[in-house]
Amino acid sequence: MAEAGTPGNGPLTGVRVIELAGIGPGPFAAMLLADLGADVVRVDRPGGPGLGVDPAHDVTNRNKRSVIIDLKAEDGATRVLDLAERADILIEGYRPGVAERLGVGPDACHARNPRLVYGRMTGWGQEGPLAHRAGHDIAYIALTGTLGMIGKPDQPPAVPANLLGDYAGGSLYLVVGVLAALHHARATGVGQVVDAAIVDGTAHLSAMIHGMMAAGGWQDRRHANLLDGGCPYYGTYETADGRHMAVGPLEQRFYDEFVDLLGIPELGPARRDPARWEELRETVAARFRTRTRDEWTAAFEGSDACVAPVLSLREAPGHPHLAARGTFVDHGGITQPAPAPRFSTTPTSVRGGPALPGADTADVARDWDVPLLTKDGD
């Protein structure tokens, strides 16, 4: 693993971002902007975010600075608006109408800073029958049809942690949205509101699948298609030691190499005959159970058979390829993913550990010229 510390702040150096503290996709989106070099100031509430994670270990708050503002206090909204006047982007993840009631909604912010990009991160969106309902990742992806795609047909849908909804359908779409709006604001001087709903982003992720379904190339049920585990040469198999290998030789030349290295070249023709897929699946499964995961990893080493060991989170940083690329870094005693993607001219880095609530108030007050932040010693 590489040690974070190489110079480089990233392509968003000079961009100022306010993050109104929350949990889930908002903090991750703000982390990504911070990783890319933005000066992200997280506005924490007194008492913390309520997630129960030690702030010193919350990697999603790396590369940020933190101030504490009580938005329910008499001057709380004024302090945030003073920051908003000097910011390029603001991110909030409240239920619809909450920011307005607190005095920091889009209208109040744009009255102080017409160029501001106001990013709203929610599960259901700012409007619609469910807009004011509580929810979490699993409910959002359930309604989009994407959760129902994952898993075996005789078992409940498999839960993909909160990666598919919160982060892929939520955070990444919010970041794309606010950066696109920032480009527009810098060209026109006009800011706008970005409504990033997890249901919208997650549905958008399934665009290719909807096209395949319309063309008759995808069945609307689990474990019956090329990419959902229904195909015997695209899935996972248990090894002799109870671990797993991932298999994905979709193209003919990769498949030929796969069956050869697996020792079942006689089943080469089964690839093109779905009637033989169950026979192929059973044979492949039996072969993988004859050796350990590490033995099979060695057997496929250097090949184009599209086979890889399924590693745990603790194992992944030690993989030779990821170690060579510095995909994970050690910073402040925490092993964590390095910023991504990579830039040839404006490299990124982990510049600082998780921002501790309120630890940067004086520095932000000075750098952003907002003296009210330090009122009463806050």
Query: What spatial form do the alpha-carbon principal axes imply?
Result: elongated
Helical content class: 25-40%
Uncertain spans: 2-7
Number of DSSP strands?
12
Q: Numbering strands along the chain, what is their spatial order in the largest sheet?
A: 4-3-2-5-6-7
Q: In DSSP terms, counting alpha (H) and pi (I) runs of 4 or more, how many helices?
A: 13
State mean pLDDT (0 to 100 scale).
94
Distance between the termini: 39 Å
The major pleated sheet works out as:
6 strands, parallel
- SSE series: EEHEEHEHHEHHEHHEEHHHEHEEH
Structure report:
- With 378 residues, the chain is α/β, with parallel strands linked by helices.
- It is 33% helix and 14% strand.
- It has helices at residues 25-35, 76-85, 98-101, 106-112, 137-144, 163-188, 198-205, 207-214, 252-262, 277-288, 293-300, 320-325, 361-367; strands spanning 2-3, 16-20, 39-44, 64-68, 89-92, 117-122, 192-197, 235-238, 244-247, 307-309, 328-331, 334-337.
- The strands form three sheets. Strands 4-3-2-5-6-7 form a six-stranded parallel sheet, sandwiched between helices. It has a three-stranded mixed sheet with strand order 1-11-12.
- Helix 6 (163-188) packs across helix 7.
- Mean pLDDT is 94; it is low at 2-7.
